[in-house]
Batch of 2 targets.
Target 1
Amino acid sequence: MEEQKLTKEERAQLLRLARQAIEAAANRRPLPPVNPAEFSPRLFEPGATFVTLYDENGELRGCIGALEAYQPLIEDVREHAAAAAMLDYRFPPVRPEEVPGLRIEISRLTPPRPLEYQTPAELIERLRPGMDGVILRDGPQRATFLPQVWQKLPDPYEFLSHLCLKMGAPANLWQRKKLQVYTYQVEEFQEGED
């Protein structure tokens, strides 16, 4: 990550704010106001995040985020925590009684960079499994996998094929057509870490 990493306290503050946002959203209440004096000024700098929720069994329960910074980091985390709980189309909205059992993971993204390649083989060669988040774009369609997805899909062929499916395209589109590809890295942290 090129940007300076967040401190332990800044990470803890963001995780606390994410949990408050999820509790408010699940209970259909507005987000509580933020007092800037209580937080590090760095948290008010522009930032892009994904907030991922896991249930008590460690299964995915929601994940929503932004690929590029368009608001202060603190607001990005709050907005995406609430959205991950309530608006991920793959899951029903989180119920208030589920909130205590959720585990929250925040991924802070670096700005995406274009990945230049000529052939499918060169694309595979240039990817860095476990390090790179990948965005595929084909006209107006796009999809991304965070670097953490490499843990479940370590094979680059499978990774790109699943990403094409997520984009709503045939799995082998990346082999048949030159797509726009961008990569980014994340600073990932979650509840329960020291």
Target 2
Amino acid sequence: MGDDVPLGLYLGLLFFLLICSAFFSGTETALMSLNRYRLRHKAKSGHKGAKLTERLLERPDRLIGLILFGNNLVNFTAASLVTVIALKLGGPAAVVAGTIIFTLVVLIFAEVTPKTLAALHPERIALPSAFVYYPLSKIAIPIVWLINVIANGLLRLVGVHPDRGDGNHLTIQELRTLVAEAGALLPRKRHQMLMGVLELEEVTVDDILIPHNDVVGIDLEDDWDDTLRIIRESGFTRLPVYRDGIDNVVGLLHLKRLVQKTSLDNLTKEQLEPLIAEPYFVPEGTTLNQQLVQFQRTRQRTAFIVDEYGDIQGIVTLEDILEEIVGEFTSEPTPAHADVQLDKDSGGYVVDAGTSIRELNRTMNWHLPTDGPKTLNGLILEYLETIPEKGTGLKLNNYPIEILQTSENVVKSVRIHAPEPGQQALAG
């Protein structure tokens, strides 16, 4: 440009180039900071800007090449203009000062400020910018193609293949983190259900089974009147049937089928035995998601959990697994807090020590540790390493616990208080 070009034109062009530089810098950060899943949702909902943005991000190498080409073009052009302006104003001596000032201006107004704004509000900046980049990407195809060929070739020389990216797939752990962080945006019940589904892969049948000593069933060696009383009073729809103990299980009796076949008043043992279904066994350690699939495949609702020696550890039902997702819903007679009673005198809770820790945490919103023993009794015995006496006190995860009743080898009941003021329960 010659000396006859007005200085104002130079300054106006420089200002325009700075705006362009800020646009390229800010939109680059915004486009790369977008939540891809929110973008995909908007695109499927018909948002035109989201659709264009999703197309651009299908090939991020091309988009980055286009943005950097434009950004460097305007920055180098602006630097040349600064040199011309500095020469017009103060000669060669002013070039150094002009370069320093221009560097600060670009850093503040064309880099830091727009990129910070874009990082804070990526959607507001990225989606409208797609209407600029999409036609530009068509116009600049030859230049962008050449840039990408050279850049991708250099990457391949060092063993990096641009077309083999990790994609946007989430692992179960990442999805769990995503759902946990979205807790404030979801109703509490729905959030708990989503977390319950995602935790099925980590929780095993051992964590939710009904221990064998708590199983209500029919012993064929018992007096027949006792058997009829159990059938009438148990309140359960399915009862295990065994001989001389649960380890000698015969099968499972479905009481609804029993009532359909005959009257309880006239029921005999000979009529009962043909109605007993074959037992369904599952090895301990089976994850809940696997067991849920197995229940569906075999059309079963109750399984006997066995250890490596074939001894029955307890039973698990389809309802138990579903309650891990949706919470308590069963129509069985046992209420959700049957093993937990409020102690009004002390302000704590009297708890049956044989209760599952997971059940206590879920129903009482407690945070007792779940990575060890499955019952409260087991947790206390592991902590104390001895059978405690009545009145013994301890603290687990900031929960004060007092032993109320013990027998020869187990803790029967305890009193638990919420964490003391100023303390929080540790994550279990």
